[in-house]
Design a protein that fits this description.
18 strands, globular, 16 helices, single chain
């Protein structure tokens, strides 16, 4: 029996669990701080066990890891190096869906010495995006082409019929993670020139992106795209941009939220007990002044603008009680958004991932290749986000269990022996890219 330990039974764990348990030789142990959440996903399966686990309980974590061949860490990314250290001590392989952090990267040498596979960035973005990028790029290089431009956008969004709130967004993954991403600066390459976008200007720096069959979206740059010239092996490219997709209106609203300081992560003790009181206290607005009007003036907007109406709908001007008197502005915003921007029973989410690469072939000219993945969640079933994150992780586990990865150390799915079989099986599971090519 091949034993797998899954740490974390959150929003994207369902498809992963179902996929692995279809193999008779796999025994799965699922650990989460919320025992009932883990139990609801396992559903009394005879080859699955559930455990209540606080990650700070190291002895219990060590015991669980020691009994597995492969450990899957689907807990917050800050815990991955902690879990990885235990895997190193006990000689266990590790799979995560998260970006490789500096702390994780530092373990590469020790993992290789022990012949261990620590496979990361195996979700949607990062994950499926890397795999399809490498498939396109390696095909272009093998045909003698030079990649001049690589532009990619990805978004996890409500399906069009479920996009029914002023933000055009609902949470299919970590609400705090979505807002924290708005605090990052971005870097990308445009016609050979590096562009640096500060966190303050991130939501001003967007363009309209047309996705055939779906319409127009806002696309803004995501983190450091320039580093992917090396990751993807396309140092010849003069344009390199990876970005995030949202429905129109998101960027302006998040820009103004940032201007109010509501993305501040510093915890404070608030005298007020309501959101309206907090906002007055935080912005220094006196009780005698009408709050909505004062905030509109602060943002140089009309009180009737979409932004102010959206903040009002969210509850920032309301007498709703704060979830805690000692909390950061960002977490106060998260608490409101979690309630207001959640999926209702039976609603579908949607993931959209589009790569566009321009390839120059000697004597043939330039070809524009567009590869698009559009996937919808299942009403009353798994979300698209859970499938596009959970299934690649499960397939990575399968490759390790079947001894099909000959490499070791800190890995990402940018090598053919990893991305090729995963993309092929994802297609059989309904996650397929549509490719279009034209010479320009």
């Amino acid at each position: 029996m091949k034993k797998v330990c899954l740490l974390g039974a959150g929003l994207v764990a369902g498809p992963l669990i179902e996929y692995l348990l279809q193999f008779d030789e796999v025994e799965l142990r699922v650990a989460d701080i919320d025992l009932e959440r883990a139990r609801s996903l396992v559903k009394d399966h005879p080859r699955a066990r559930v455990y209540q686990l606080d990650l700070q309980n190291r002895p219990e974590l060590v015991k669980l890891v020691s009994e597995a061949e492969v450990v899957v860490s689907m807990v917050p990314y800050t815990f991955h190096p902690y879990v990885a250290e235990i895997c190193l001590e006990l000689g266990k392989h590790l799979v995560t869906a998260s970006y490789v952090s500096p702390a994780m990267k530092a373990l590469d040498g020790r993992a290789r010495e022990k012949g261990l596979i620590f496979l990361n960035e195996l979700g949607l973005d990062p994950g499926i995006d890397h795999m399809e990028a490498m498939r396109l790029i390696e095909a272009a290089h093998q045909a003698g082409g030079r990649v001049l431009s690589f532009v990619s956008y990805c978004g996890g969004l409500p399906a069009p019929e479920a996009s029914d709130n002023p933000f055009g967004y609902k949470f299919s993954w970590s609400p705090r993670g979505v807002l924290l991403a708005g605090r990052n600066e971005a870097r990308y390459l445009l016609d050979g020139r590096e562009v640096v976008v500060t966190a303050e200007e991130l939501f001003s720096h967007y363009q309209m992106i047309d996705i055939p069959g779906l319409g127009v979206f806002e696309g803004y740059p995501n983190r450091n795209s320039v580093s992917y010239l090396e990751t993807y092996g396309i140092r010849e490219a003069r344009t390199m941009l990876r970005g995030t997709l949202r429905y129109p209106g998101w960027c302006q609203k998040l820009k103004k939220i940032g201007e109010l300081g509501l993305l501040d992560i510093n915890e404070r003790e608030w005298q007020s007990s309501t959101y309206a009181g907090f906002l007055r206290e935080y912005l220094g607005i006196e009780e005698a002044v009408e709050l909505k009007t004062a905030v509109a003036e602060r943002l140089r907007l009309s009180p009737k603008s979409d932004v102010i109406q959206s903040l009002d709908w969210l509850g920032l001007f309301s007498e709703q009680p704060l979830p805690s008197r000692k909390i950061s502005p960002l977490d106060l915003l998260v608490a409101l958004m979690v309630e207001k921007l959640k999926y209702r029973e039976g609603e579908r989410d949607m993931t959209v991932l589009q790569h566009q690469i321009t390839v120059e072939y000697p004597g043939k000219g330039r070809e524009l290749v567009t590869s698009t993945l559009i996937d919808f969640g299942q009403p009353h079933g798994h979300s698209s986000m859970s499938r596009t994150v959970g299934l690649p992780v499960a397939l990575g586990v399968k490759l390790i269990l079947e001894r099909r990865i000959g490499l070791s150390g800190i890995l990402t799915p940018t090598v053919r022996e990893i991305y090729q079989p995963i993309l092929a099986e994802l297609e059989t599971l309904g996650l397929a890219f549509k490719e279009e090519r034209k010479f320009i």
